[in-house]
Amino acid sequence: MPNSVTVSGKQLAKNEFERAFDAARRYARQSRARSTWLAYRSDWQQFESWCGPVGLAALPAEPETVAMFVASQATSRLSPSTLTRRLAAIRLVHLGAGHPSPHNTIQVTEVMRGIRRDWGKPPDRKAPAIGEEIKKMADAVERQTNKGLRDRALLLFGFAGAFRRSELVTLNAWNLEEREEGVKVTIEKSKTDQEAQGQVIAIVRQPDSPYCPVQALQDWLTKRGDQERRPFPPDVPWR
Fold first, then answer.
1. How, if at all, do strands 176-178 and 199-204 pair?
2. What pLDDT band is residue 166 in, cutting at 50, 70 and 90?
3. Phi/psi class of residue 198: alpha, beta or left (left: φ > 0; alpha: ψ in -120 to 50)?
4. Residue 185: which H helix or E strand, with range?
5. Could you read off the pLDDT of 200-230 as tens digits, one per residue?
6. Exposure pattern of 56-82 as b/e (b: 16+ CB <10 Å)?
7. What does the alpha-carbon distance between residue 213 and residue 153 come to, in Å, rounded to a whole number?
8. Which positions ≥6 away from 20 have C-beta within 8 Å?
9. 82 closest CA partner among 197, 167, 205, 168
10. What is the number of alpha carbons within 13 Å of residue 102 lying toward its C-beta?
11. pLDDT at 31
């Protein structure tokens, strides 16, 4: 009889452990959106695929390996927010396998610091060609009116940065940093940036083009006058 009670107690303890383990695993999965977990899986696969051909171990990875990986990815103009997510995936896999994570070592953090500084500079390249339809729309506005200058800036600046409408109308004056090469735009959060890491977009000046997006923005802001307001407030019906 005492033996059967002991066995029954062990079974109850085992069942409770399994329930607790399943609950912990379920809540851990819910700690991030499904799309984030899928992105992490893809990020880890990218890291493994990069390590294989160069003969470096992905798990556990040396800090120098991770530093070289993010540097290699940065040369393809991947944004710092994407690289930060790549590092988050590397961290999770290492910790899940019981290894210390190399993601925040001095070798990696210094490379990421350099990548962020470089990303903030407008790239030395030509801006994408303005489509004929955009040119026709820009030519059709009445440039002598406030509304026309605003609409022209929305068209040319929005097209050059591939901005969503929601990103344009929530831009603040402090999100725009004018530089010799163009304008650095900081998007604090967007639909595709659920963790609010932010994104920097460089709008390159085209001084020889009548469709320069930077000039179109400056014309609009100069005409409007108040440089501290949002460039494109959604609630002001300019005419």
1. unpaired
2. confident
3. left
4. strand 182-187
5. 888 888 888 899 999 999 999 898 876 667 8
6. bebeebebebbbbbbeebbeeebbbbb
7. 7
8. none
9. 197
10. 17
11. 58
Q: What is the pLDDT of residue 83?
A: 93
In whole angstroms, what separates CA 222 from the centre of its chain? 30
Prior bond of 60 cis (ω within 30°)? yes
pLDDT by residue (tens digit) across 95-152?
Answer: 989 999 999 999 999 999 999 888 765 444 444 556 778 888 888 888 888 888 999 9
Cβ contact 66:111 at 8 Å: no
- Asked if 122 and 179 touch (Cβ cutoff 8 Å), the reply is yes
Map out the domains of the chain with their CATH numbers: 32-119 (1.10.150.130), 132-224 (no CATH)
Residue whose pair of structure tokens reads 């609009």 in the numeric block? 220
CA-to-CA distance for 154 and 233, rounded, in angstroms?
11
Alpha-carbon torsion 159, 164, 169, 171, what sign?
negative
Gap between the Cα atoms of 106 and 46, Å rounded: 22
The identity of residue 118, as a single letter, is D
CA distances from 49 to 36, 52, 69, 73, 82 (A): 20, 6, 11, 12, 17
Give one DSSP letter per residue of 5-34, joined into a string: HHHHHHHHHHHHHHHHHHHHHHHHHTTS-H
